[in-house]
Amino acid sequence: MKIYITGLASGYEVEHLVRLFYPMAPLTLTPPEAGEDCVWAERKPDGLLALVREHGGQEAVSAPLPGPDGETEAFALASLTYDLLRRWTGIRPPWGKMTGVRPVRLIHDKRAAGWSEAEIDRFFLSRFDCSERKYQMARAIADLQEPILRLGSEPKTYSLYIGIPFCPSRCSYCSFVSCNLDRDRKLVQPYVDCLCKEVEAIRDEADKAGLKLCSIYIGGGTPTSLSAAQLRQLMGTVRDCFDLSAIVEYTVEAGRPDTVTPEKLQAIRAAGVSRISINPQTLQDSVLQTIGRRHTVEQFYNAFDMARRAGCDHINTDLIAGLPGDTVAGFDDTLAGILALAPESITVHTLSMKRASNLVIKHRADYTRQEDAVHMVAHTASQLPAAGYRPYYLYRQSRMVGNQENVGWAKPGHEGLYNVYIMDETHTILGCGAGAVSKLKRPASDYLERIFNYKFPYEYNAGLAEMLKRKERVMTFYEEMAAQKDLGHCGDQ
User: Bridge partners of 340?
Assistant: First the structure.
């Protein structure tokens, strides 16, 4: 099956919508040959055309061009194609025509714009053909997030992200920038030294701009790939630079159980961290081997127990629905095992077939069964509320198996606040480390200005001076904003 789109300035909407039905279909720039399986979407001078051809069968539909007060041509063609493919395949995607990553953000935006709840209902259920179940979850999350977002929207509030791009091994589904420790261990100590200098520089720029730190998130990669001494060095720098008593959350990912030790947990606890994440992804050893995770279920249980004994009273665990080799019964067994541990929060991801992952590059024929992933996600939506967890944040990615979503579940009072802030783009995020992106937020506006760090650790180590120079933009950004406010037109640009 190929995707061919022509006649539009951008076929982005149509392309991603077609992949709701045919996830691995490639986009072609040349017209498919007669008889070749394809989805053909075209904006003609006098109308719109959508055609599907598969296994010797074919169906085509057409529609007039939208009027000046109607939908955009791109959305009209996407809708025409969606209706055709829904009828042709018999599949109704759970999120309908929505291909964006932040459906909850849409609800916040519409409420802020003065839309009534009935208008928002129609927007999701009628215009986008979203399922009632998914929409009601998104709406419940939006309701729960409102007080969290008010806290994160206080003037000049920001969060700090610190990235550790090292892992013991690369999981097959991963497309993040991360370096294998076995190969790149010599980069780690110079990287930590540079990172500490960038943290200090960020503190200086934030102070000059009069910013107030709200939350800290150390992610990766795998931050606990660092040694206990390196963690103490990094988090000691953070402690010396910031007033940790004033922040609402401090998270460190201890994602790989095989990197967790009592010494590292002691360093994390001594640094004032309030939340850690220990991520098994699955409690099936055979699946862990299939995805190249290189740790065992027993190691996860040991790491979780070590964290509890170290005094960690907010532990998050990540699971992935739809992993290669997993089954509905296996996922249910994993979920039961996690619930028996009673972590404070559980994040349920759906496998995303990322183009840069080894899973796609090397094993495209092993595409997991979409029906299984759908059942797995449905089970979490019934079992987690029964165990006292509420959904508190949600986002989507392209090429997600079964067109599902990623959802953070938490016991009341244990929501991951940074997760909410970054998904909603509530306030400024200042990022340190290789691949980190700082996002400068203009209040009461969708405007974000981005400052990019170098992507790879060796670039980062060599280019620290350049990145520190880029960070000087933080102060001038806020100076310009203050000047615009004084002139009475802040936010007009």
Answer: none
